[in-house]
Amino acid sequence: MRNVMKYLGIVSVSLACAGPLFAMGVQPFAGVSVVQQNVVTVKGQVVDEKGEPVIGANVIVEGTTNGMITDLDGNFSLQCPVGSTLKASYIGYLTRTVKVSGAMNALKIVLKEDAETLEEVVVVGYGTMKKSDLTGSITSVNAEEMMKRNPVNLGQGLQGAAAGVSVIRSSGAPDGGFSIRIRGVATVNGSSDPLYVVDGVQVGTSIDFLNPNDVESIEILKDASATAIYGTRGANGVIMITTKSGSKGKAKVDFSANYSLQFNSNKIDVADADLFAKAVRESCRNGSVMTNLAFGEEYIGKLNNIDWQDEMSRTALQQNYNLSASGGTEATQANLSVGYLNNEGVVIESYFKRLTARANITHKVKDFIHVGLNLNYTHAQHHFSGNMRSYAQAIPTMDYVENGTFYSMPIVLPDGSWGHYKQESDGDINKGADNLVAAAKTRTDQISKWDRLVASAFLQLDIAKGLTFKAIGSYNYSTSGYDGYTPYNPRTFGSKDRKDSYSINQNQNSEIALESFVNYDWSNDHHRVSAMAGFSVSDTDGVWLNTSASDFPADNIRQISLTNDPSSKTTNGGRDLKTRYQSYFGRLTYSLNDRYILTATVRRDGSSNFGSGNRYGTFPSASLAWRLSEENFIKNLNLFSNLKIRAGWGQTGNAGSATSLSVPQLSSLNCMYYMMIGGSMTNGAGIAQQKEIDTNLKWETNEQTNIGLDMAFMNNELSFSVDYFIRNSKDLLIYRQIRPSTGFTTVYTNAGHIRNKGFEISAAWNKSFGDWNVGVRVNGSTLKNEAVEVGDPIFYKNNSSGGTQDGDDWDNHSITQNGYAVGSYYGWKVAGIFQNQQEIDALNAQSPTGKYQDGDTAPGDFKYIDLNGDGQITDEDRTVIGNGFPTLSYGLNLTASYKNFDFSMNMYGVAGMDIYSYSAARLTSMYGPDGGYQNVLAEYVKNAWTLENPNGKYPRITKGDHNKNHRASDAFIKKGDYLKISNIQVGYTFPKNLIKHAKMENVRVFVSADNILTLSSYNKWGDPEVGSNRVLLTGFDGGRYPFPLSISFGASVQF
């Protein structure tokens, strides 16, 4: 677009040389009546933000007709009265004003692109539209501003960038991913991730393979009127990405290098060795047994303290390099790029490496025939992740007493061998405790790798005026695998039962797709019509295999068959059912006088996942827009640059996890069992139905209504957008209980209904003051999620919040039931802490079993609430105790530039969110792996209930959990509100006259900081940014790899 403007500028300059200026009614060198002694000469240049000259810009003395347009180098020269104001303007840029204080010979006026201009073109499904014609809810993300966040993946760049788009980092690991959700969740058994479309190719719900440096533009399609064109794959929203392409003209080469130092800034304040020993002594007062006498009072001040969080952390270096070349002729244009990322990771022995390569090539065979090729290849590997909460809970000393002798145990002994914990009488070393550093250093070859290839080619025929045909063929291939050997060192690793092991797994997935569509555009003075119709077909296939074994005759053996223990061998593998999608789609847009706009779409999708009677689903949408700012009664107000009302309705589909569940399947596993003489159960040979099948299984349906208002003022310097949406997800694919007489207990069927609704608001302000350019962008959104009808409650039963040491009490800690949010927290309510035995005895006396609470309840234990009033605490007293959906999410972006300096800052946060803190439960429990001890929060030791401190805020300290104080309860529901300053960057662009002799077009250097500050009451338990790709675990925190603080230095050069 910038090149087009330059050509228009050249034309306007030529016309100006032949006669009077037509732009703004300005006539060259036309004078006004001024006092001559106050007139001075002002010479200068008008440039854009990249320092490129703006050809044909209007420069005028405000309030007069004295002005001119800039020449081919952007230069101008005017006679101006002192005290007057110069105004510079150009189509697509914000107007700048400069006060004339005296003669100036080298004034530089920088024009900033008008990001809100109504003529901006945005990418939509199977085409583009002018922003002024949009009738749906679509948010554009400025890729140039995004790159100032210094992102290494797309999720990092999108955080806080768009209203209604939740982007939560799931881990601080070098390869850590993001959970991205648009307007809540729409299913309970499938994915809630959006669809990504890159250069017109649907690449699925993962975008990790894409280098952010290759991105040209991003559009986020949020409501059904915008996403229905993608039918079943657009149920969770669509993120459209356009990568950089070549352009006509001489070749340009861009190189950037970025170096980051990363620090672990998320340490948890746990007990040191002496405070831990004090906690052990207190636990012994409450019935525990001290197996290591080094924790006795006689060794106070003598213990060797080990801060495992420090020992497992390091200052890490991240290196990021990108090289690209672009250019082309009239017929052929190309953009080629490579990128390399090497992130060491702040946890020792962890790392992530990624290599990307991309090629975008287009060629004009004839004036009416265009072809193109897009290739993207990514190779990545990572090693070791880690959980900082588990490091924090390692016992802070390995010192021990054995046979009356005190042994001081450092991490590395003087002879170079590894230090270790005390060996217990049954052969275990402190019931499974590890020297964590030794474990990390000796497990250096557990590597995960993945490769991704996305290739596409297109053919475009310009058949007639306004009529084009385009066909896109694509191949999307990914493979991932793990190859890991775990050695065994009996003096390093805890359990005597541990043996060396080796495992390997491999996954391969591929998709071949073909899409073809026709576009037709027609217009006259009052009417504009755009129509599109198309067809697509795709085939997917997947293969997986994993195998493992343990107990090998020597170290580092990587051959499963050589195991000493054949029974340890496990091999699983299979091929997913091949899936085919076949679709027909179309869109019609009509505009009357550029004021009244109608858009309608329809898509009919077919999938082999469903039975023959329900394979196809039809998903329509319709939306309207009224541009009131084009009405005379609004124009006459001279208030609005833009005023538009939007309303839309539409449906999309979702297959959930329906793969093969509508097709009857047979298996030899579910065959007949019968009783033999003597009472033993034996199975007979044969094949039986594997599970009950609902042959009427069909698509989930997402129905969404959206109402929006867009406003802009002061020549688009200030803009607002407000949207209200309500999204009903019906016919959800869920399991329902059935009669036992069928031989099965459940059936997968269409029986659920979820609703998401909320408001979204975004605002932007851009203003120029002399050499200053200032920009502010803010967005916010509310969300209410509710399970309207799901039948029987749905539980999450995998104990996946980080593992459990407390039995089944952590099972079923997530519930989805009518009237509550999906994946609500489920557990008991706490009424306080028992202060004396009399309280306990009084409640026991009223219980039908003689015990109010199970276990050996004692003073200092939690007192749970008997919700059903039966006199005892049972599973029936559990209830919903919170949920992980924030009421409010928001983001803020600040930008500023002064001459050659630029500044940006990004913040984001949430409010009204609960966190189910498994970390809080573990950090207030000394009950560790295999029944041994583990470290706890320092605050817990200092503020636990004791006889001397009956007002303690935490329950009594015990090694065991006789009262199950750490069961799922509202004691561990924490406020999850937070505000993060995620990035601050300062940059400097060198003047062209300093670099042109080195044949460089542009040089910019910058320094930035990431993950700078988190304001939250949750910080003592960990980072409050809790993400999960599992819908039913939204807001659960089991501890993660720490989010590092990063300080970066970088430079970019264009030749």
UniProtKB/TrEMBL annotation:
Pfam families: CarbopepD_reg_2, Plug, TonB_dep_Rec_b-barrel. It comes from the Bacteria. Its main location: membrane. Keywords: Cell outer membrane, Membrane, Receptor, Signal, TonB box, Transmembrane, Transmembrane beta strand, Transport. One of its GO terms (cellular component) is cell outer membrane. InterPro entries: Beta-barrel_TonB, Beta-barrel_TonB_sf, CarboxyPept-like_regulatory, Plug_dom, Plug_dom_sf, TonB-dep_OMP_SusC/RagA, TonB-dep_OMP_SusC/RagA_CS, TonB-dep_rcpt-like. It is found in: Cell outer membrane. Residues 1-23 form the signal peptide. The keyword Transport applies. Residues 418-905 form the TonB-dependent receptor-like beta-barrel domain. Belongs to the TonB-dependent receptor family. This is TonB-dependent receptor. The lineage of its organism: Bacteria, Pseudomonadati, Bacteroidota, Bacteroidia, Bacteroidales.
